[in-house]
Amino acid sequence: MGRGELVLGEARFGPESQPRQRSTRQAVRIRPMADESIRVTRSVSVPRSEIELRFSRSSGPGGQHAQKSDTRVEAVFDVEASSALTEAQKRRVLAKAGPVLRAVAQDERSQWRNRELALERLAETLREALWVPRKRRPTKPSKTAIERRLETKRRRSETKRLRRPPD
């Protein structure tokens, strides 16, 4: 969202407006959250200005509130256009998750809570895509461990040998 963007919303005024269902359109000013950022990992932090938030009506039951409020939130992050990721990180995310990451939340009744959930889910998706598996360092069992394993095998072999019927 740009600085000082106007968003249209519905507002009802007074008790007499309820029976006739009259509504007026009112502009609501939303403050941009460009100065804040979302911490993904210790080294990666994504500015909120790079994340596009889309609002729409939730699906499912919920009565008047769900049908009248834009509580569903979709957070969209364009990996290729991001300045927060290095080229190597971009390649890794593109290979694992694709060029655009999306997270949707419509679990809660409030738009604010759904916005937080969508941002958390987006950060988790990005975190998983950035995760680098550690290389396995091949190790050799110690001499004691080898002796212990062989001794256990000998005992087990003897136990099974004693179960056999006599020849």
Straight-line N-to-C gap: 87 Å
Q: Can you tell me the overall shape?
A: elongated
* Helical fraction: 25-40%
Provide the gyration radius in Å.
29 Å
As a percent range, the share of strand residues is: 15-25%
Low-confidence segments: 1-32
The arrangement of helices and strands along the chain is EHEEEEHEHEHH
Q: Describe the largest sheet.
A: 3 strands, antiparallel
Spatial order of the strands in the main sheet? 5-6-7
Number of helices in the DSSP assignment: 5
> What is the number of strand segments?
7
Q: What's the rounded overall pLDDT mean?
A: 81
Structural class: alpha+beta
What is the element layout, followed by pairings?
Elements: E1 6-11, H1 17-20, E2 24-29, E3 37-39, E4 45-47, E5 51-56, H2 63-68, E6 72-78, H3 87-97, E7 100-105, H4 111-130, H5 143-163
Antiparallel strand pairs: 1-2, 3-4, 5-6, 6-7
